[in-house]
Amino acid sequence: MVDNNTIMGLGKCVECGAKETDGFSCYEMFQFPLVWEHNDPELYALHFWLVSCYMIQHPSNYTEEGYKLMVNLFTEAYDNEWHTEYILRRNRDLVSKIDKITNPLPNNKRKRRYRNWSMTIEEIYISGEASS
After folding, report:
1. C or N: which end of the chain has fewer Cβ atoms within 10 Å?
2. How far apart are CA 33 and CA 85, in angstroms?
3. Sequence spans of domains, the chain
4. Per residue in 38-49, pLDDT tens?
5. How far apart are CA 1 and CA 63, in angstroms?
């Protein structure tokens, strides 16, 4: 299966290893928590962490500069226990200084490398939206 952001091979994402679940690629599963957080302000406060984790696990979707920026920002934010408002302000400032974040190459031309992760978007999707 191929969508605009991932390539699934043998039922798994070739980059993060998430298993195709309910017919969804890892990118399609990623869309579910994005919707869930818009229904719950507490979840939305974690938006940066959700998006950056997905980005870090799928480097082929981003420019080298954009990827390094996200990894560095994630590390600094985590290590320094930054508040969401500060992270978002810092992210806007950093992104404004680089040319592109997303990889301009067509999906089938991007280099992909599998890395083993202890958790992928699959686990979040399977857990489902928490009900209040």
Report:
1. C
2. 20
3. 24-106
4. 989 888 888 999
5. 23
